[in-house]
Design goal:
Helix content is 33%, strand content 23%. It contains 9 helices and 13 strands. Strand 8, helix 4 and strand 9 form a beta-alpha-beta unit. The longest helix has 16 residues. The chain binds adenosine-5'-diphosphate and magnesium ion. Magnesium ion binds next to loops.
Length: 302
C-alpha cells in the first residue's frame, strides 16, 4: 500500500442517454440519466483507492450546494478529502454528457472552481510532498500551476506522474523535462507532434521525438493496439500488445490503466510487469458499459 497525492479536478457529471442528440432549437428526451462526481483524475483516484492505496485528493470546489454532494461521493469512493477546499464566490465544476444510441456524444463543460487553483495553492503542498510515494497530476491544470507542480516535485525529489489529457498546445514540453512518468494516448501524441500513429514503428518514432523534451518514462497508450513505452534511461522503446476483447465502452480505460500502473510500479518496482497488469485491467474495463459502474465493480485482480 502506498500513500499517493492526486492533484486533480472535480465535476458533478450528468450523463443523459438519448435517441438523437438535439441540434439548435431542438430538444431530445432522455431515456436514462446518471449523476455522479467524476473527472479523469477522480477516475484514477478511485482505482488507486480500490487497490488499497491511501489517496489524498487536492482540488477546488465551489461554495454551492454541490459541494456537500461531492464530498459525500468522494468519501464513498474512499478518497481522502482533507485537501479539498472551497473557492469563494465560485460554483463547483459541472459536465453534461449527452450520448446517443450509436455512442456519439455531445459534451458541455463548466470549469467553475477547477480554474481557480493558483500557483500559491500548489506551492502550499510543498511542505507535505515528502509524505507521498508518488504524485499524480494532469497537464490540464492551469499551465503556471502545472509548472509549479513539476518544480516542487523536483525540489523535494518526489516522483511525479503526469497524464496528458487533451493535447494542450500551450504546454511547453521542455518544462516537463524532469517528470518521472508521462502518459499521452494516441490522439494526444498525434496532435502534440503533428504525426499519425498507425503502426508500432510510428509509435516508436513519436516516443523518440518526445524523448527530446522529457527524460522520464514515457507511456504512449494506443487503445486497441496496447501501448508503447520508452523507459527512463533506456535507448529503445518496448511494445506491449493487448488481448482482443469485445469492446463496448472504452471511456476511462486510460485513467484505469494509469492508476493500476502507479500502484503496481510502487509495489513491485518492475516496469514490464506493471505495464502488463495495467493493460490487463484496462482491457477488461472496455468490456463493461457505464464508467461509474465500471469503477465500482471492475475486477482488479491479475
Ligand atoms: N478497444 C480496446 N481493446 C483492448 N484494450 C483496450 C481498448 N481500448 C483501450 N484499451 C486498453 O486501455 C489502455 C488505455 O486506452 P487508451 O484509449 O489508449 O487511453 P484513453 O482512455 O486515455 O484514451 C490501452 O493501452 C489498452 O491497454
Ligand atoms: Mg482512447
Amino acid at each position: 500500500m502506498a500513500k499517493l497525492l492526486v492533484v486533480g479536478d472535480i465535476y458533478l457529471e450528468n450523463d443523459f442517454l438519448v435517441q438523437t442528440i438535439p441540434v439548435e432549437n431542438e430538444f431530445s428526451v432522455a431515456s436514462e440519466v446518471h449523476t455522479f462526481t467524476g473527472s479523469k483524475t477522480i477516475n484514477s483516484a478511485r482505482v488507486m483507492s480500490r487497490l488499497n492505496n491511501s489517496v489524498d485528493f487536492f482540488a477546488k470546489a465551489g461554495t454551492d450546494d454541490l459541494y456537500l454532494k461531492i464530498l459525500s461521493d468522494l468519501k464513498r469512493y474512499n478518497i481522502n478529502i482533507d485537501l479539498i477546499s472551497q473557492s469563494e464566490d465560485t460554483k463547483t465544476g459541472q459536465i453534461s454528457v449527452i450520448t446517443d444510441e450509436r455512442e456519439r456524444s455531445a459534451v458541455n463543460i463548466f470549469f467553475g472552481a477547477n480554474s481557480k487553483v493558483t500557483t500559491q495553492d500548489i506551492q502550499d503542498l510543498e511542505g507535505s510532498l515528502s509524505n507521498y510515494q508518488m504524485i499524480y497530476g494532469a497537464t490540464h491544470l492551469p499551465v503556471d500551476c502545472l509548472y509549479k507542480l513539476v518544480e516542487i516535485c523536483r525540489k523535494k525529489n518526489v516522483q511525479l506522474f503526469l497524464d496528458f489529457p487533451n493535447p494542450q498546445k500551450t504546454v511547453e514540453l521542455s518544462k516537463l523535462k524532469d517528470v518521472e512518468y508521462i502518459s499521452p494516448n494516441r490522439e494526444e501524441a498525434e496532435a502534440l507532434f503533428n504525426e499519425q500513429i498507425r503502426s508500432v514503428e510510428d509509435a516508436f518514432r513519436v516516443l523518440t521525438l518526445f524523448r527530446k523534451f522529457c527524460n522520464g518514462t514515457i507511456i504512449l497508450t494506443l487503445d486497441i493496439d496496447g501501448c508503447a513505452v520508452l523507459e527512463k534511461g533506456a535507448k529503445d522503446p518496448i511494445y506491449f500488445q493487448t488481448t482482443p476483447v469485445q469492446a463496448v465502452d472504452s471511456v476511462g480505460a486510460g485513467d484505469i490503466f494509469k492508476a493500476v500502473f502507479i500502484s503496481e510500479i510502487l509495489n513491485t518496482k518492475d516496469l514490464q510487469k506493471s505495464i502488463v497488469h495495467a493493460q490487463q485491467i484496462a482491457t477488461r474495463s472496455v468490456a463493461i458499459k457505464g464508467l461509474d459502474f465500471t469503477l465500482n465493480n471492475l475486477d482488479l485482480s491479475f
